[in-house]
Design goal:
- The protein has one domain.
- About 50% of the residues lie in helices and about 0% in strands.
- It contains four helices and no strands.
- The chain is flat, with a radius of gyration of 17 Å.
- The termini are far apart.
Length: about 80
């Protein structure tokens, strides 16, 4: 399992063009995805599904390392000036 997570993290960092600074985030993300991926050992269920008895929500997933922008409401922008 450890090797699998390390290889996934290394691959995600390389694909996103990110440095070692983001290693912990990549490993955390790899583990998160692994727990939400089906496996034949659990008869095509996910680890999350077996643990919580619910299908995992995956609509929030995005490409690792993609650009993201934070919206700051106008009212908040004026407070910082």
């Amino acid at each position: 399992m450890n090797r699998s997570l390390m290889e996934k993290a290394r691959s995600m960092l390389s694909g996103a063009g990110l440095g070692q600074k983001f290693w912990a985030l990549a490993v955390d993300t790899a583990c998160y995805l692994k727990n939400r991926s089906p496996t034949s050992a659990l008869v095509n269920k996910t680890s999350y599904e077996v643990w919580s008895s619910q299908k995992p929500a995956i609509a929030h997933l995005r490409v690792f390392g993609c650009e993201a922008f934070m919206h700051v409401p106008k009212e908040k922008k004026e407070q910082t000036r």
